[in-house]
Amino acid sequence: MITILAIESSCDDTSAAVVRDAGDGRGALLLSNVTASQKVHEEFGGVVPELASRAHQLNIVPVVDTALKRAGVDKSELSAIAFTRGPGLLGSLLVGTSFAKGMSLALGIPLVEVNHLQGHVMAHFVSTGTERHPDFPFLCLLVSGGNSQIIKVERADEASSEPKHMPRMSIIGQTIDDAAGEAFDKCAKVLGLPYPGGPWVDKLAQEGNPKAFALAKPNIPGYDYSFSGLKTSFLYLLRDALKQDADFIEKNKADLCASLQRTVIEILLSKLKRAVQDTGIRRVAVAGGVSANSGLRNALLDSGKRYGWDVFIPPFAYTTDNAAMIAQAGYFKYLDGELCSIDAVPFAKTIV
Ligand code: KG4
Known about the structure:
With about 350 residues, the chain is an alpha/beta fold.
């Protein structure tokens, strides 16, 4: 029996999860997934790193404790501790990393480090026993507050005789400036919406006309993304319109949100479509916080029907930052014998 406790603290969510492989051939099943979100950032319109680290320090003991209790697992039954090593906010990562190291030393069990972005992709393998998981190879659109990437995910042992559980991931396209989530959040901020703005834009967009306003779309080669031009064109649209009518935002909020959301989705899907055409890989998954967006989910399902893609959308609980995805990645790495040293330090930036 393998039991893994995972800790995620890369940004402003403190999360702990427990998975267990009971050796019955069903792989690791999720026993608990507990997340404490930090409200302290709302009044600042964005995450304040120092406040995030302090909130993680307050949250980590009760969150881990609750995850173990909900799983019905005692510390002495754990096989390993998985933790998010990066990328993310260094102060936040340091809390989870130090806590994981402390537990590993105290219990005399190994540590497994997990890359946060690989964790998001692994959300597709979190299992409570009923989910459908993508077969390999597949393309994963990873869209979060800090990243927008198209990742090719393949069976790791295709080229070797070694059996491997953790899949191989390669980035074939990524943003050259801002992330999709950042575009949602920054545009929402200028509309006076609370942080994080993505879910608010999503909600308001449902009552608006997505064709009301034309916004700039980038024209860059390959499968790369850019969202800074869209952000600027949104800002200029508001600046010019507010000169004519001081109530422009209030009168047009839903239409502005719907137009912004449509443009972000069109940008995301145009490159994804091209990647599917060129690679011939028709299994398409989406991951990261922005994959909670209802417009994006519908657009992917529509593309699935129209172009014959097999589309995988994770349950809401595994879209934003959570430890369940880290536990799943940690379990695969543990099976592969990929343990990490007690000297491992967090890192702020990396690629998958
Ligand atoms: O993956 P995540 O929780 O954190 C990281 O960046 O790692 O993603 C957070 C992002 C934020 O930008 C948030 O506004 C966006 O996901 N988001 C959404 C929605 N829910 C969360 N964006 C658009 N529509 C949503 N429903």
